[in-house]
Task: structure prediction
Amino acid sequence: MAKNINKVKEVDVATVAGNKTLETGVDRRAVERCKDAIEKLGVLHTPVVGTTHEGNRLLLSGQCELTALRELGVKKMEAIEVDVADDAGARAKLSLLLISLNDKPGALCEGLLLQEAVNAGVPRTEIQIMLGKSASWVSNRISLVTRLDGSVYEMVRSGLLDPRSAEEIARLPAEAQFAFAETAVRERLPKSAIESLVAGYNDETCPDAVKSQMLSDPRAALMRVADSRRAVKTDNPDNQKGGVPPHVIEECVKAVRAQMDRLCRMLKYVSPLLATGYIGALSGLEGELVDLRMAIRKFIYPGKTEVGNNAG
Result:
């Protein structure tokens, strides 16, 4: 007969200490999705709680669920309760085992857990075997943590900055990370925008003026970065003399129309006072749109220098 190894118990939510490291892998949207799932279906992934010899309960897995339960006002929850040794290395290895079995918490959180294990004396070779990862994978994850500015990390822990956005910011020079992170939070930049700006900042050809603009007006800088990339593609011989594939033009048209639609929606909510700061940029854009219109009409009506406004 199989041995009963069920360790699920009902515990008081308030008695379980949250895991600061795991919190770095949890963003606000994930918590809201988890709350919605709990209200409709119950807890889908049972948290794992380690109990010390002194009776303290430490969360080892399930930070998103624990946060959601607390915000929903739930007093008791079912948890897999296991005894944990006072040895930090043993706890670190157990945490690594748990993340290897569950959905990935993100590179930053993985790096923090790996660093904790290494600092606790767990050999890297043992970590590699436990997770089924290469030495370079482990090194890259730990390197991400060591590169990230401490103040940016605190922004992640406090919930101001999405952990995956922080992973992108860690690619910047150390002296630029905090200012960039503050700008990203203030402007509520999505991860895709942060990724593009970081790539542009790290480009050796990026002018210092554009780098400064990334901190003062990142959305305008993002357009300049996109323009420079388009210019590089245009200079490519493969994109000249009719060598542009049709699908590339279609994708470009879709992107331009999407940005125009977005700009029109934003301009509706810009006050007259703030609008004065964008007159130069909008005036330049107006001229470029005129040039674009002329180029399009020459393409549609080849051989004609002028086409009336009512031309079909």
